Amino acid sequence: MPGPDEDLALLIGAAQEAGRIALRFWKRNPRVWDKGEEGPVTEADHAVNEALLRRLRAARPDYGWLSEETPDDPARLETEHQFILDPIDGTRAFIAGEDSFSHAIAVARQGVVTAGVVYLPALGRMFAATCDGAATLNGAVIEASRLPGIEGANILTPSANMKPELWPGGVPDLKRSFRASVAYRLALVAQGRFDGMLSFRQGWEWDIAAGSLIASRAGARVTDRAGRALRFNMAVPKADGLIAAAPGLHAALLERLQAAG
């Protein structure tokens, strides 16, 4: 059975292939379809998904498969390992010709992510980690922020998440920024460029699996919005929000979120 390092090497090669495919469509008016509440999808998403499906399943035919662009097969629930991926995370940014879209690809084993990559082909950035190794960017070790509390925090989160009704303990005074790709937000936290990220919406596993491992291995604390550990390959593959931040900041944010009204 391949270990995390072997799986990571496979994911890196697959992500590089995905990037080459995506860049053939980027800024070239790809065909776009609307998936309703799930947002838009492009012909590039489908092309990347098909290439990853062929490559990854050929290499690991006994691994389950969970992808945003493949109809879910409950057979994955009976497998020990699974691929969990978003062929293009940040599709709206991709359509707009922005460079912050990513490929997020992970392997999970018994509910825990063991290898993951977040690759931004337009920027040439490959974030990667295994469950027993360091988080890296293009092979160099990266570390998350060690900010001890809220003061001076720089957070990635949508503006809607700063509404007073969401913060029983008071809206924190912090600097807010945003990036379209959830996976990239997690990678930026891992890199220490931001102190944390918040998402209060239910999040699909394919958006968060790879990035959550990378941020965690970089030293951030990563949980759902209630502070619970994340579990993957669930029957309903969603997490109840997401908090990824420097440990001291994470604890301070959680206190504000859980304070009695």
UniProtKB/TrEMBL annotation:
Keyword Manganese: no
Cofactor(s) the protein requires to work: Mg(2+)
One GO term (biological process): signal transduction
GO MF terms, alphabetically ordered: inositol monophosphate 1-phosphatase activity; metal ion binding
Keyword match Hydrolase: no
CDD domains: CysQ (cd01638)
Residues noted as binding Mg(2+) in the record, renumbered to the chain: 68, 86, 88-89, 207
InterPro entries reported in the protein's UniProt record: Inositol_monophosphatase-like (IPR000760), Inositol_monophosphatase_CS (IPR020550)
Pfam families: Inositol_P
UniProt entry keywords in alphabetical sequence: Magnesium, Metal-binding
Family stated for the protein in its record: Belongs to the inositol monophosphatase superfamily.
PANTHER family noted in UniProt: INOSITOL MONOPHOSPHATASE, INOSITOL-1-MONOPHOSPHATASE-RELATED
Protein name per UniProt: 3'(2'),5'-bisphosphate nucleotidase CysQ
